[in-house]
Amino acid sequence: QVQLVQSGAEVKKPGASVKVSCKTSGYIFSDYYIHWVRQAPGQGLEWMGWINPNRGDVNYPQKFQGRVTMISDTSISTAYMELSRLKSDDTAVYFCAREFMSIGIPGYWGQGSLVTVSS
Amino acid sequence: SYELTQPPSVSVSPGQTARITCSGDALPKKYAYWYQQKSGQAPVLVIYEDSKRPSGIPERFSGSSSGTMATLTVSGAQVEDEADYYCYSKDNSGNFWVFGGGTKLTVL
């Protein structure tokens, strides 16, 4: 079955960077996009972008352009999301999610990775 | 930036029908998708492409879209349907995805 397992919780200082990993199994990694979505404490979901593991192309909303980098390593079926210049309001649970049925939306989700930004 | 607007909360008694709306000016041209998120869990897709139900999602969940509004309907809502529900769609450019603000469904 499709599984996405994310890296553990992180605590970072303002201005630092964080890199979250998302190891996948149960399907051909390069066949489906990986999306990243975050959720601040008590808040709603926020789409951060996607990566096409087959070609490496990415799509980020304007809010995160210049600060987010999504990459993939097809040899180990793992996607990564790095967010730089962290601020306190980047404190959130970060989710990776595999595309559903090749229609471009998140369908299979990781368990989430809590990133806390605090001085 | 593009926004999808949902009511913050909807409340029904068990067995009643709950309707959650999502408005956005690109919805006449873009599909709506709906996610259910229970406390402390990852979201689950319950409706895709306005009205299709993924396998394993109960038939009481249905979706529709007309003009600038999409609607998620839970017919005969059950206590276990209590959750936050988010609509999701593309903006007018078709390049970027947006979540609605979420609606807390209470069934009691």
Oligomerization category of the chains in this entry: heterodimer
Order of helices and strands of chain A: EEEEEEEEEEE
Rg of chain A, Å, rounded: 13 Å
Beta fraction of chain A: over 45%
| Proportion of strand residues of chain B | 35-45%
- Can you count the beta strands of chain B? 9
Any chance you could write out the topology, listing elements then pairs?
The complex is a heterodimer of chains A (119) and B (108).
Chain A: E1 3-6, E2 10-12, E3 18-25, E4 34-39, E5 45-51, E6 58-59, E7 68-73, E8 78-83, E9 92-99, E10 106-109, E11 113-117
Parallel strand pairs in A: 2-11
Antiparallel strand pairs in A: 1-3, 3-8, 4-5, 4-9, 5-6, 7-8, 9-10, 9-11
Chain B: E1 9-12, E2 18-23, E3 33-37, E4 44-47, E5 61-66, E6 69-74, E7 83-90, E8 97-99, E9 103-107
Parallel strand pairs in B: 1-9
Antiparallel strand pairs in B: 2-6, 3-4, 3-7, 5-6, 7-8, 7-9
Which features would summarize this protein structure in a list?
heterodimer, A: 119 residues, mainly beta, 4-stranded antiparallel beta sheet, B: 108 residues, 6-stranded mixed beta sheet, 3-stranded antiparallel beta sheet, globular
Description:
The complex is a heterodimer of chains A (119) and B (108). By secondary structure, chain A is an all-beta fold. The N and C termini of chain A lie far apart (40 Å). Chain A is built from no helices and eleven strands. In chain A, strands 2, 4, 5, 6, 9, 10 and 11 form a seven-stranded mixed beta sheet that branches. In chain A, strands 1-3-8-7 form a four-stranded antiparallel beta sheet, with no helix packed on it. In chain A, strand 9 and strand 10 form a beta hairpin. In chain B, strands 1, 3, 4, 7, 8 and 9 form a six-stranded mixed beta sheet that branches. In chain B, strands 2-6-5 form a three-stranded antiparallel beta sheet, with no helix packed on it. Chain B is mainly β and 108 residues long. The mean pLDDT of chain B is 97. In chain B, a hairpin with a 6-residue loop joins strand 3 and strand 4. The interface between A and B is medium-sized, with 22 and 22 residues.
